Amino acid sequence: MPDVRDSFRNVAANYAKSTFHASTIRLQEVLDLARPKPGDLALDVATGTGNTAFALAPRVRRVVGLDLTREMLNEARRIAAERQIVNVDWVIGDALHLPFQDDTFDLYAVRAAPHHFVDVDQFMAEAYRVLKPNHDAAFIDCSPPLPARDVLHDVETRRDPSHVLSLTLDEWVGKLQRAGFQVDRAEARELDWNYEEWMGNMAVAPALSAELAGLIESAEGDAHAQLHPERREGKLWHAYWHALIRAHKPSSR
Ligand SMILES: C[S@@+](CC[C@H](N)C(=O)[O-])C[C@H]1O[C@@H](n2cnc3c(N)ncnc32)[C@H](O)[C@@H]1O
Fold first, then answer.
1. Fewest C-beta atoms under 10 Å: which of 47, 109, 119, 207?
2. Ligand 1 interacting residues, C-beta cut-off 6 A
3. Given the CA of residue 94, which atom of ligand 1 is nearest to it?
4. CA atoms within 13 A on the CB side of 231
5. What pTM did the predictor assign?
């Protein structure tokens, strides 16, 4: 399996300004889902350059931003210093083996990363373990419907070899429930997706980008209807989906 750090160490600056990752509207979406409270100790797993952690920071007591890739956290640290954000701590660590004790956090968040995790059940078990009972977790990740997922899976794995799998909404809900969570809200939200920016975030070479665009544009049947690819002023746009899920760890199982 490719090392996820190889995918991210040279592109950190892109994730600090990507429309999906850094725009106010997408960060407000995180806040609406996660519902942070002023006294919370929040954990943002796979924080990358810290976008989600920065959105949570003014709303909580303290945030821990955890990520595997040192260069992404270096960028997060740089931005935190620039914006004078002082209530975020940065930790290098693995979502599948969190370096925290049981029942530590008031809020668990993860966005745009679980599709990299090689063992989703283990990641969910860890989320459940470190969250305090009677508290909530927010999960946001790419989540295309079938059969669009089959087309996007080819594109995703060639765009970024550390892509493992995007779960459908039903797969998310089933797995979270098996991990012990009570799922309070689950929706798959569709976005109008700027293909060129998406490829640019991962610095995909132009020839490969053109080839992968061809996979999306030549999708057939239901996949084509779901993706509805379209050229605007020569640039490809298509549909892209994220699961937005809030889940509750009950006080006892
Ligand atoms: C697209 S970026 C995350 C974006 C960020 N969550 C946000 O909201 O802007 C994906 C991140 O997942 C991290 N990552 C991938 N697998 C990981 C793992 N097992 N544990 C921790 N971080 C991981 C990568 O290092 C990368 O920084």
1. 207
2. 4, 8, 15, 21, 46-48, 51-52, 67-69, 72, 94-96, 111-113, 116-117
3. 20
4. 7
5. 0.96
Task: Name which of 48, 54, 45 is nearest 138 in CA terms.
Answer: 45
3-state secondary structure of 208: helix
Q: Which domain holds residue 35?
A: 4-143+164-190+242-249
* Interstrand relation of 105-111 and 235-249 (parallel, antiparallel or unpaired): unpaired
CA 34 to CA 244: how far, in whole Å? 10
> The tokens 């089959």 sit on which residue?
150
**3-state secondary structure (DSSP) of residue 228:** coil
Q: What is the pLDDT of residue 253?
A: 53
Q: Which atom of ligand 1 is nearest to the CA of 47?
A: 6
- Ligand 1 atom at minimum distance from 201 CA: 1
For residue 200, is it within any domain? no
CA gap 191, 242 in Å, rounded: 8
CA of 51 to the centre of ligand 1 (A): 11
User: Tokens for 59?
Assistant: 């709303």
Rounded Cα gap, residues 62 and 153, in angstroms: 36
E strands, 74-221, are: 88-92, 105-111, 131-142, 182-194
Domain assignment present for 42:
yes
Q: Judge whether 228 lies within some domain.
A: no
Residues of the chain predicted below pLDDT 50: none
- Per the structure, how many domains does the chain have? 1
**CATH code where residue 64 lies:** 3.40.50.150
Minimal CA–CA distance to 141: which of 164, 120, 165, 114?
A: 114
Angle at 19 between CA 124 and CA 73, to 5 degrees: 55
The reply to whether 174 falls in a domain is yes
